[in-house]
Write a structure and sequence with these properties.
Order of helices and strands: HEEEEEEEEEE
Number of helices: 1
Number of strands: 10
Strand content: 35-45%
Oligomer: single chain
Distance between the termini: 114 Å
Largest sheet: 6 strands, mixed
Length: 139
């Protein structure tokens, strides 16, 4: 036996169910568009630059204890960071007492005096980042 009240209840449940399905379908249709927009937004944000240091000596050959300069630029390293000169001694890199802080633009200029005669393999480091090796001959 179906009463008026039972029919009304069945009709309301049917309408709510249909509305739920319609909303779920709309949400499902909107999800792929939102997912497609997310990668586009991710590509717009700039990735941090990979840390790198360049180094160029002002001369390739000097007399012992003669002042020369090593200049260069850093990228991906915080402005004002300390850069240090390293020398290869007996197969190991040794930090020398020659360091300077980078400028706001990431550049640096370091005055250097070397006393170890012969070819000196050198590089500039900041943290774990190092420049390419370069040579200065001391006569």
């Amino acid at each position: 036996m179906i009463s008026k009240r039972g029919s009304l209840r069945t009709a309301v449940v049917g309408v709510i169910g249909a509305a739920s399905l319609a909303l779920a379908g709309t949400a499902m249709a909107a999800t792929p568009a939102a997912a497609a927009a997310a990668p586009a937004a991710a590509t717009q944000t700039a990735a941090p630059a990979k840390a790198a240091i360049t180094a160029k000596p002002s001369v390739s050959s000097v007399r012992a204890w003669q002042l020369f300069r090593v200049t260069g630029h850093t990228t991906g390293i915080k402005a004002g960071s300390k850069v240090t000169l390293q020398q290869k001694q007996h197969g190991k890199w040794v930090s020398l007492p020659a360091s300077v802080n980078t400028t706001r633009s990431g550049s640096y200029s370091l005055g250097v005096k070397l006393g170890l005669k012969g070819r000196n393999d050198l590089r500039i480091v900041s943290g774990k980042t190092a420049s390419a090796d370069f040579q200065v001959t001391v006569r």
